[in-house]
Amino acid sequence: MRYAILAWLVLVAMLAAEPPQTTAPHLEDVIALDGDTLSGTVVYPWGAGLLRQKIRCLGYDAPEASHRRQVIPPVTDAEVLRGKAARLELVKLIEGSRVYVVPVEPADRDAYGRILAKVYAEKPTGEVVDIAEAMIAAGFGSRN
């Protein structure tokens, strides 16, 4: 158990010291499911991959894009419209980019089975965009 904890601490230290695009897994065949959830194949730097994974982008909450989720208070039509606009903004942010995911813990998932991760988009110009900060700045998310 101690070795597992030590290995995890070493991995976290390595990820913190390196830019995300050199050490973090990236997504292939990525699509935006809503304003704060992506889907795609998670590809690790060593070549292993996880097919069709859902990723919950950490750092912000976007409005709900559908009435499917049963929450209290109920999702309104106005929120669904804002949620669809947030999804379109996320699509614009990731379009043409290489999307990197930095999971908070190797096996952390939320109640819906989504991997919890910070998400970055590397543009063709080399610019790296923090998705959470970009969505908040554009008015399509609130900090959580």
Structural notes for this entry:
- The protein is an alpha+beta fold and 144 residues long.
- It has 4 helices and 6 strands.
- A 5-stranded mixed β-barrel has the order 1-2-3-5-4.
- A hairpin with a 2-residue loop joins strand 1 (26-34) and strand 2 (37-43).
- The longest helix has 18 residues, at 77-94.
- Mean pLDDT is 84; it is low at 3-14.
Bin the strand percentage: 25-35%
Mean pLDDT: 84
> Helical element count?
4
Largest sheet: 5 strands, mixed, barrel
Helix fraction by DSSP (H/I, runs of at least 4)? 25-40%
Overall strand count: 6
Low-confidence stretches: 3-14
Radius of gyration: 16 Å
Give me the secondary-structure category: alpha+beta
Strand order of the largest sheet: 1-2-3-5-4
Compute the separation of the termini in Å. 32 Å
What form results from the Cα inertia axes? globular
| Helix and strand sequence | HHEEEHEEEH
How would you summarize what this structure contains?
This protein has 144 residues and is an alpha+beta fold.
Detail the topology: elements first, then pairings:
Elements: H1 2-17, H2 20-23, E1 26-34, E2 37-43, E3 49-57, H3 77-94, E4 98-103, E5 115-122, E6 128-130, H4 131-137
Parallel strand pairs: 3-5
Antiparallel strand pairs: 1-2, 1-4, 2-3, 4-5, 5-6
Give the tags.
about 30% strand; about 30% helix; about 140 residues; 5-stranded mixed barrel
